[in-house]
C-alpha cells in the first residue's frame, strides 16, 4: 500500500538518469554522442555541483525535451517509479510551463500553449495503473520577465489541475523584484491558490519580506541555522519547511548532512513542521525512502521524528483529499479485520 507524500519534486529533475540516457539515444540526441555509455552520463548528471546556479543549469537538459508530445512519456515513468519504488500515495509536481512550450513559436503562441502543457501534465497524471493523488505547482521563474510570470499565474488560477504557485529559478535575483513577487503572491492567495517559494535555501535567498505570503517554505534551512528568531513566527502561521537533504550536498550549500540535525532539532523545539522531500529525485538518483533512511543512519532524526515528518507531509499537502494519511486508513482496516476474525472465532 502506498504510504508517503512528496511535496517538493521538480518535473525537470524527476527523470532518473537511465531513462533520460535511453531517451537521448532513441531520439538520436547530440547528447547520445557525447555520452555513448550510461556510466559516464550518470556520473555527469548526478555528481555534485559547486553552486546552486551550476546545479540549476542541469534542468535545461530536460526542459527542452519535455514537450507537449513527450510529457506523457515522462509523466508515466515518473508515476510508475514513484508508486512502485517509493510507495507514494500523494505527489505534487512542480515546473515552469512556459519552459515546456515550443521555442520556435512567437511569445503570444507560447503563452497560449502553456495551458495545453498544464492540461497535458494533468491528464497524463491520472493513471489508473499507478493510482497516486497528484496535483501541480506552477513555478514562477526569477529569470523570466514579469508579464510571462503573470500569465503563468493566471493559468494557474484557471486550471483545476493546479493547487499552488512557487518561485524558483535561482534566489539571487529575488531582491530587485521583491515588490513584484509580493504582489503576485497576494493575488494568488486572494484567488484561492496555495503558495510556496524557494526561500532560505541558501544565504542568498534570505528574504523575510516574502515569508508572510507563503503557505509552505521551499527548503528554508537557513532559518533554523542562522535566523532561529524567526521560528516562533513560522510556528504561529503554521508554515512547514520542505527540507530536501540530498540537494544541499549536490549544490554545495552544506558540506555534509550534519548541520541538518540543528535544522530538525530547532524546528521540533519551536513547533515548526518539516516535510522531508527529494526535490530532484532523478538528478540525485535517489528516492524518498532513501532520504528517510539516510537521515536515520546519520542520526539526524530518530524514528519518532521521522513519523512526525511523514504525518506533517500529509497535513500540509495542498491537495490531499482525505482527512487521514494512508497509514491511518490501513490501521483502521487491520483493526476491522482483527475484530471480524475475533467475532468469527467466538461464533
Question: What distinguishing features does this structure have?
Answer:
single chain, 347 residues, alpha/beta, TIM Barrel, 14% strand
Task: Describe this entry's structure for a reader.
Helix 9 links the parallel strand 4 and strand 5. With 347 residues, this protein is an alpha/beta fold. The chain is globular and about 50 Å long. About 2% of the residues have low confidence. The protein has a single domain, classed as Alpha-Beta Barrel (TIM Barrel), CATH 3.20.20. Helix 1 crosses helix 3 and helix 7 runs parallel beside helix 8. The chain contains 17 helices and 9 strands.
Gyration radius from CA atoms, angstroms: 20 Å
From the N-terminal CA to the C-terminal CA, the straight-line distance is 31 Å
| Main sheet strand line-up | 1-2-3-4-5
| Strand portion | 5-15%
Fraction of residues in H or I helices = 40-55%
How would you describe the shape? globular
- Along the chain, the helix and strand elements come as EHHHHHHEHEHEHEEEHHEHHEHHHH
CATH homologous superfamily name?
Answer: Metal-dependent hydrolases
Helix run count: 17
Structural class by sheet pairing and helices:
alpha/beta
- CATH fold description: TIM Barrel
Low-confidence stretches: 337-344
Number of strands: 9
Number of domains: 1
The level 1 CATH classification is Alpha Beta
